[in-house]
Design goal:
By secondary structure, the protein is mainly α. The chain has four helices and no strands. The model has no long low-confidence stretch (mean pLDDT 82).
């Protein structure tokens, strides 16, 4: 007897093919990779850049350069450096975690082969 193929209804779909679906996918990916704070700051910067009148942008840039020259901007620079270092640390730790997971999986498989011998059923192709 042939197996019946399961057809998916529109309500079963996880992916929405519109702008908000794209935003949802990007934010979920940012959460999974630990990049949500950087994504949030980027979104806020884009919204601010769009909302500020063009005449004000020159004044704001001039004020920012004045703050850098006076040394009042050190906190913001340190904050950005902290974000960058946090991102790099997060990336390194994620790599370490994945490496350890592969090692533990390999150890588990080795032990299962030792205990079960030929009775072991392969669940994935590595």
């Amino acid at each position: 007897m042939a197996k019946k193929k399961r057809t998916r209804k529109a309500s079963d779909r996880d992916v929405h093919s519109n702008f908000w679906g794209m935003v949802q996918i990007v934010l979920i990916t940012a959460i999974n990779k630990g990049q949500l704070p950087a994504a949030g700051l980027t979104i806020v910067a884009i919204v601010l850049a769009v909302k500020i009148p063009p005449q004000e942008i020159g004044k704001i840039v001039s004020q920012l350069f004045d703050m850098v020259v006076l040394g009042n901007f050190v906190g913001y620079i340190l904050f950005l450096m902290t974000l960058l270092l946090w991102y790099l640390h997060n990336k390194r730790e994620r790599h370490r975690s994945e490496t350890e997971l592969r090692r533990v999986s390999w150890e588990r498989d080795k032990f299962q082969r030792l205990v079960l011998g030929d009775k072991l059923i392969e669940s994935s192709e590595d």
